[in-house]
Amino acid sequence: MKRILYPALLLLLALGCQEAPHHVTTAFYHWKTRCAPSPYERAYLDSLAVDRLYVRFFDVDWNAARGEAVPLASVRLDSAALQGLEIVPTVYLTNRTLTHIAEEEVPTLAERILSRIRGLAGTLPYAEVQLDCDWSAHSRDRFFRLADALRAALAEEGVSLSATIRLHQVRYFEQTGIPPVDRGMLMFYNMGEVRAPDTDNSILDLSTAAPYLDKARQYPLPLDLALPVFSWGVVLRDSLAVHLMSTLRLEQLNDPERFAPLDSQRVQVRHSTYLNGYYLYQGDIIRWESVRPDALDEAAHWLADNLPYDSLRVTFYHLDSALSRRFPAARLQEMIEAFR
Which homologous superfamily does the CATH classification assign to the domain defined by 20-230+290-337? Predict the structure, then answer.
């Protein structure tokens, strides 16, 4: 009898020591001015059990001529195409807006932001609003005051407020401070020097990012996670980055009449020409940057081991029609499983 019970006891102890699976959900950012997911995109989202979209509603920038903060590039929502999806109105706020606005005008800005969100959302419900701003030491107090005003107003409607958090704001949180919001969204991308001519990939570089999360377990705000599934072209002129081509496709650079390959990531413009509406000069260099599935998979496993969480929303930036070719749903699902 003892021989039977002893292995059984060991098995029970082993099972008791196993960690309970984490609660992990999946979402996407939508960063275009028209939000109307196609049936193809909806099928892709459904295959990943996505029920939430963080939708860029508008930008807020400083208009020097008018001396005030103004909204730009407001979204147009297709209510029918969004049926069954929870939306999170997301507002991108430039740092220069906060460095220029008078402190006493911040509450008014909060009211104007909320009014515009309500107007654009119409009858679409939402339970969360997100602020996207890379605040600085100089703009921190105004950003925190804005977040505080928005959070108080939203709480009266039963709506929470979140904010994007950059890597440096986690590593140096004693200096940068903790924004007065309900949750943070850690932006795990754009971590390299995009302006540097010798950079290979500024979007995702685990060796660059890893040291910034030394204090992730000490960060006092609950964090969700944003991961990159996008690509772009960086236009370099005289060794200086002058433009980002976010809609560029790699196959567009495979044009030997216009572009001379320099290496696997770079081409040089042979003759001055237009590309995606942007004028390129002879001698310009275009550096192609993208996120490889294996690199994202490595990052996901590393983050799963180094981020503290019981529940986590993994959000991918961003949804577009070509996404499924680069990241088939089954491949992306494997990465999500790393967090469970």
Answer: Glycosidases (3.20.20.80)
